Amino acid sequence: MPELPEMENYRIQLSKHILDLPITGVTVNREKSLNLSQADFINELIGRKIIFVERRAKHLLFHLDNGGRLLLHLMLGGLLYLGSRDDRPSRSTQIEISFASGQVLYFIGLRLGYLHLLSAKEAEDALSHLGPEPLGRKMNEALFISLLSQRRGSLKTALVNQDLIAGIGNCYADEIAFAAGLRPTAKLQDLNAEDLSGLYRAMRDVLTEMTDAGGYMEMPLTKDDTLTGGANELCRVYDREGESCPRCGDKIVKSEMNGRKVFYSPGCQHER
């Protein structure tokens, strides 16, 4: 599932290409991805312009020139592609939005994801449960330690809890734990302030590095996009089962915790 680095990469790149362009066409191939009828959704978008693209946690918010918001959550398997009819990928699309520039924004793999048209207040309410952004202005070391010090249970469960800290999922929770030298299964109640301080620095370092590298999405956003997917090569433990740990040389282990895959290096990651 796309996480903060992937969605932030999309936000940055889309902001360079689609702002202030009239929407000239909308194709809906899966009405269940919408919150309105297909006809109403299309009628509301034709002629509108996207004036700003915002990211909140794993969501994108497309701000429309009439004050409305398109709220996107790609969920598992979702992708975006921006291009022409000629260079579009050979993938089924659920929604397509055409712009006056001739480019089309393709929403791919929205079997679980959605694109909802909301008012500004409705969008704010829909996202009101989310915790602070891990790289946001409101987040600092003291707040991070305070948030986690009040919790019990495993480190990974806390990191992927969107109500606690927004934007981290399976992949980067494991990468953050690795950078901090802690196992994803470590119990929060066993960690001291020094452990949590190191975890905070690891969170910032990993998310910044992976965002700068374009996230791990498998497909470029545009035909000229050479950035998206660059984080794939930077993952140290996630999806690296059986490979040698780049830090200690031990074999990376894959296990499962509460239905989630967990990757770690037993040689250099500890319960505390």
TrEMBL record:
<keyword id="KW-0238">DNA-binding</keyword>
<keyword id="KW-0479">Metal-binding</keyword>
<keyword id="KW-0378">Hydrolase</keyword>
<keyword id="KW-0456">Lyase</keyword>
<dbReference type="InterPro" id="IPR015886">
    <property type="entry name" value="H2TH_FPG"/>
</dbReference>
<feature type="domain" description="FPG-type">
    <location>
        <begin position="236"/>
        <end position="270"/>
    </location>
</feature>
<keyword id="KW-0511">Multifunctional enzyme</keyword>
<dbReference type="InterPro" id="IPR010979">
    <property type="entry name" value="Ribosomal_uS13-like_H2TH"/>
</dbReference>
<dbReference type="InterPro" id="IPR035937">
    <property type="entry name" value="FPG_N"/>
</dbReference>
<feature type="domain" description="Formamidopyrimidine-DNA glycosylase catalytic">
    <location>
        <begin position="2"/>
        <end position="114"/>
    </location>
</feature>
<keyword id="KW-0863">Zinc-finger</keyword>
<keyword id="KW-0234">DNA repair</keyword>
<dbReference type="Pfam" id="PF01149">
    <property type="entry name" value="Fapy_DNA_glyco"/>
</dbReference>
<protein>
    <submittedName>
        <fullName>DNA-formamidopyrimidine glycosylase family protein</fullName>
    </submittedName>
</protein>
<keyword id="KW-0227">DNA damage</keyword>
<comment type="similarity">
    <text>Belongs to the FPG family.</text>
</comment>
<dbReference type="InterPro" id="IPR012319">
    <property type="entry name" value="FPG_cat"/>
</dbReference>
<dbReference type="Pfam" id="PF06831">
    <property type="entry name" value="H2TH"/>
</dbReference>
<dbReference type="InterPro" id="IPR000214">
    <property type="entry name" value="Znf_DNA_glyclase/AP_lyase"/>
</dbReference>
<keyword id="KW-0326">Glycosidase</keyword>
<keyword id="KW-0862">Zinc</keyword>
